[in-house]
Structure formats: C-alpha cells, structure tokens
Amino acid sequence: MYRLKSFLEWMFKDPSQDEHNQLLKKEKVNTGVKMESLHRLKEELTKEMYQPAVTFQEDRERIRAIRETTRGLNRNNVIRTEAYLSFYNKHPEVHWAFLAHMVSRNGGWNMTDLKGSLLQAFIPKKDQIHYFHFLEKANQLIFDDAYSQLLVYEQVKQMGDDRPLSYLPLLNVSRFMCAVWRTFLATGDSAVLTIGLIINEQHLIEKPVIQHPVFHETVFKSWKFQLQDLLSLTRVIFPYELKGRIRLSGLTVSSFDEVSERIMIGKKLYSLLFDTPLLTVGALSFANKVPHTASRSDYWPHMFSKNRESVTGNEWHSCFENADPFLYSPVLTDAWSDKKPVASYKKDWFHNTKVPDYFSSASVPGNIDVTSDYCEALRQMVLLKEAKSAVF
C-alpha cells in the first residue's frame, strides 16, 4: 500500500507546484487578533452578560425585515453562497463573509458529490439522504444565525451608530457575538470578528447537528465517512486564479466531530485565505468570475462535467491535461430539491464571561498550493471505484 501511494505521488506530481508555493509565500501578512482587541473583548463580554435587549416599534420592523430577508436567502446552498459573496463585495472589512463563501462552495460540492460519479458508487441512496440532511442542516443553521448578524452590521453602517446591535439577542444571536461585534466596531480588527464568528458557528451546530443522535449514527460512525477521511477526500479547497489558470489551495479536514478541531480548521482556513495576498486576490477573482452551481465543473471543467451523458466512455487523464471531462458532477438543482429552512436555534451556548482560548492565531500549512495533492487524491478515488466495479 505504501509503495502504491509513493508511486501515485510521483506519477501525479505537478512539477510546478513547488514553484507556485514559493511564489505564494513571497508576500505574507498576519491576520492574528490584536492584543488590544482581546482586552476590549473581555470588557464587552462582562457587560453583555447583564445588558437587556430594548427595542422600539421601528426596531421591531427592522428585525422582522432581517428575519424575512435571511429566510428568503436560506433556501439552498447556491443562494446562500452567492449571498455571502455579495455581502463581502460590499463590506470587504468583514473577512468572514468571503471565507464563508469559499467554504460554502465546498459544502455545495460535497452535496452534489453524493449524486456524482465517485461517491454515488459507494453510498446507498438512504445514506446519501442522511449525508445531505446533515450538510444542509448545519449550513442552514449557520446562515440563519450569521447572515442575520451581517444584516445588522449593514444597518449599523447605514444609521451611523451601534443601536442595531441591540437587535442581536432578539434574533437569537449569542451574547458572545454581541460582545465580538462591539469589539470589532471599536477596534476595526477584522481578525477578532472572523475568529469570533468561527467560534460561534461551531458551537452553534454542536448540539443540534454534531451531537444529534441520528447524525452521530448515520454520518460519523459510517464506514463511508471514515473511508473519505482515510483517503484525504474530506478536503476543503480554494480554487484561485494565478497566471491565467485555475489552481487549488486548501486543507484536509479530519476530526470533524470535535468542536475544538473544527474551530482550529476554521482558523487555518482563514489564515490560508487572507495571509497570502496572491491567494486572496486569485480566489476572489475566481469567485467573482465563476457563478457557484455546486458542480465541481465550476473550477475544473476539463475533469468534471455537469452533464452525465457527456462523460460516457471518457477515461482518466492528467489533471494538467486539457482533455474531455470524465467525471459527472451535477449542479445542485439536478441533485437535490430545496429543503425548508430550519428554525433558529434559541439556546445560547455561551454562559460565562471568560474569553475562550480559541482566539490564538493558526499557522498556514507548508504547502499553500495543493493542486497535485488534490489530483492524487482524486486518482485514488477513481482507482478505488474501478476496483469496486471489478469485484462487484
């Protein structure tokens, strides 16, 4: 097995990957949280534990409008993903919105993978539905909570004062995030807001999704989930444009059932996306040029196709060869129908005034460009599928 893995690494190695990594690392910035922001956050957290939410009629109307807008955009992965990008383009100081857009693209690809050429061969229809419901519920809960916050921030900018922050508790947003937003407004520290939102979203989904007994049995204990983990296919990728070509950055995700690990992954993805200016610019260029459909053909149309018929009879070719696609990757609307948005999760996970240890920064991995690594993982999955077909 080790020899096969070594052979595959050599066979599918992109000779330019090292060159691209050196280029990406030439200019680095640090998105770590400022010490003054942490001190301010400690003060705000103490205040928030005792501040009541008071609103007037005009405020209640704004809150109702925020709820309706958020609910209308929470119909499916494609709409959510575009909403994040649209917000970021208007408010680039909110780094989290672009990070959420790129991660949400991955969520869509994971959803359509269940009906595509590779995973459909391994996962029975019943399990496909369980996986989709798991992904959709997590993403719906996060969007319902986070996008409401983004709209409140938009109101703050429009009104020129922070009064709309009092809407957050009435929108079932954690008191923790009320303090984070006040800290962000006082310091302008994009990192404290981004990491705060990462911490919040992962705690938000912990009980209703990650610890939900149905998902625990049908997803995390499933051998199919463990197989993907083993083959490093649970990878979050960031397509980015560099020198006129689409390449890939990203991280392999593991231990998804641990909240601390999920937060660490989120911080690493943030550092990866925003600590490397060439990657930030390249990923944003890709995002604005290529509308999200949830098909992997969005980033590699020479490998994946939205049309099942167009890949019939086509065989594997190098990821670096411009040839006909051979893997079917449907758009979201061909794979799954819209699911009714879930109700807001009303229990606040934050119950004390201590600043979590999670605000420390996370280092960017050695390889920023992972194009050939992804190609190797893709080839492993194709070989596994072919082996399964030969046996069964």
Structure description:
By secondary structure, the protein is mainly alpha-helical. It has one domain (2-391). 56% of the residues lie in helices and 5% in strands. Strand 1 (235-242) and strand 2 form a beta hairpin. The longest helix has 35 residues, at 125-159. It starts with a helix and ends with a helix.
Beta-strand percentage? Answer: 5-15%
Q: Which blocks of ≥5 consecutive residues have pLDDT under 50?
A: 1-12
Number of domains: 1
| Mean pLDDT level | 87
**Oligomeric category:** single chain
Give the tags.
single chain; 392 residues; mainly alpha; two-stranded antiparallel ribbon; two-stranded parallel ribbon; 16 helices; 56% helix; 5% strand; globular; disordered N terminus
Topology record:
Elements (H helix, E strand, L loop, with lengths): L1 H10 L5 H9 L9 H14 L8 H17 L3 H14 L4 H19 L11 H35 L15 H13 L2 H15 L1 H5 L2 H8 L2 H8 L4 E8 L2 E8 L6 H16 L2 H13 L14 E2 L21 E2 L3 H4 L35 H21 L1
Parallel strand pairs: 3-4
Antiparallel strand pairs: 1-2
Task: Give the gist of this structure.
InterPro entries: DUF2515. This is DUF2515 domain-containing protein. Helices cover 56% and strands 5% of the residues.
